[in-house]
Amino acid sequence: MRTTKLLATAGLLGASALTALLGAGTAFAGSGDLGNSGDSGDGKAPTEAGTSFRTAQEVEQGQRATAGASTGDYLYWSFPADAGQRPTVKATVKLPDSATRPSGATWRIDVYDGLRRRQSCMYGTQSRATAPDATSVDLSCTLRTVRGWSEQWANDPLPGTYYVRLTAATLTPSDQGLPVSAEVEVTSKEVGGSAAVDGSLAAPLVPGSTTEEAAAAGDASDNASDEENGSSASQALATGEPEDGWSAGWWSDRWVWTAAGGILAALAGIGGYALTRGTGRPSRVPPGM
To answer: Is the entire prediction scored with pTM above 0.85?
Structure first.
């Protein structure tokens, strides 16, 4: 009877602790889930695009950026992505009337990290040829999960700024210069502890930060050149970051499952001891034996 009560009490305590840990882990994971939340509260989605990496328009995850352009233009946007996120970039290009578009073009979307390394897509339609009668073309690219740390020789996605480039990859002379409108939206899925790594970057890969620091520390005798470098640095610097700041991969639900495993192991030890320790000295054995 005593053993049964002990096991029941230990089981209730373990279940309560496990429920609390899982609830805390869900709250932490959900706090950074950007998902398909639509436009963010304060920031307005940009209505134009940059023409290079340095002039890329910043867009927050969940916003839908728009831009008007001409076929043959290179359109650039940038967005922040943190460790544990798996970003998906979707783009829609609305084409002019087919009567003014004698031949089809192939549109392509590329994503680059903060070091301007092109990142491969896990899945999605990264490039698509338009039919002569098409009114729009849809593109998408789902990146690999952003890692908190990686080897220098690897091409893994790392926390920092990412660049989206949208352009027509193949054009004929009759296709160039036609008006088009583009829409770009970035969402992320929180992958969690399955993609966690033992390590983190000292700082996210946000291009321009070191350039800005170098310009600020220049000699007073080079004020004119410093001001020029400072303006260039401000163009290159991407200030966007996740809503809750850079986590650098310090949290994952591995913490929850590690703690839960420890609790279950302790309960198993208590139960094993209670079942094997016996009921004490048998009544038939006299004292002192």
So the answer is: no
